[in-house]
Amino acid sequence: MLISQDTWCKFAIKQVDHEARFKWYHMNIFSRWIPSTNQTVVLAFDLDQPWRDRFLKAVMARDPNWLGDPFWVYPALVEQVARAQEPCVWGIRDHVRGLETEGKPDGRPQPDYRRLHDISRHAIHVNETLDVTIQNLEDILMHHENYMSAQIGDLPYSEDIHLRLRSFLSFVTNLRFRSISNEKRLQNEVQLAFNTVAQHDASVTLEIGRATQLDSATMKTIAFVTLTFLPPTFICAIFSMSFFDFGGDSGWTMSNQFWIYWVFAIPTTILTTLIWTFWPDIRRMVFPKKD
């Protein structure tokens, strides 16, 4: 003989406003049904406003015939859960729609990645709470079916309770499909933001490459002009030194001290080449980096 039947369930809901601020709501319900007197003890934990008053009002307005079923309290509870979940889904949809309708900015795109991340996180949590709600509803329906199959006789009020629970399961499942769509649309917006920035950066890189090609062509021209005039300039510099004399009756003469030029020029050239070659090592030795 059944003396009492206890049930326990918990639902979590995350609501997000237009500023992407969020708040968690929890619904923990314990019920004990006593068949001998058709009495039900309901304990509600962590039930915030306005769901507390709505749940109490819905429970008090139930059909008295339902009191013969231990699950009579759950249609009222699930109704409040479904009503609380619906604005959560549409709130995420509003954020996604706002992202979709934003115009393309002038210049380099500056996506708010922090905002995209927060909305994605909220969408994932809403999906999670809907999954948990659906799982709880399926478990409640399964236990209610077991209760109904164990009863003898026709129980129309139990059939009514069962149908209402199934209708709410269908409603929450539809919300789950909408929430999945929101998450996919949000993923498209995140991908679009990355691709837009990458496309803009690629166009800038292409322009830099073109400018570099122009600079390279200019440097080649300068190098060609330099190489063209460097040998004559060197010859002019040599013959303009005082080691050579083109005047007087003696004609063209060269000083016997011309070797001094090579004594200074050759070592200086070699020293300059060595310094240029080993300058990175010299810089590390002379200017060591401080940790």
UniProtKB/TrEMBL annotation:
One of its GO terms (molecular function) is metal ion transmembrane transporter activity. One of its GO terms (cellular component) is membrane. It is a multi-pass membrane protein. It is found in: Membrane. Keywords: Membrane, Transmembrane, Transmembrane helix. This is Mg2+ transporter protein, CorA-like/Zinc transport protein ZntB. Gene3D superfamilies: Magnesium transport protein CorA, transmembrane region (1.20.58.340). SUPFAM superfamilies: Magnesium transport protein CorA, transmembrane region. InterPro entries: CorA_TM1_TM2, MgTranspt_CorA/ZnTranspt_ZntB. It comes from the Eukaryota.
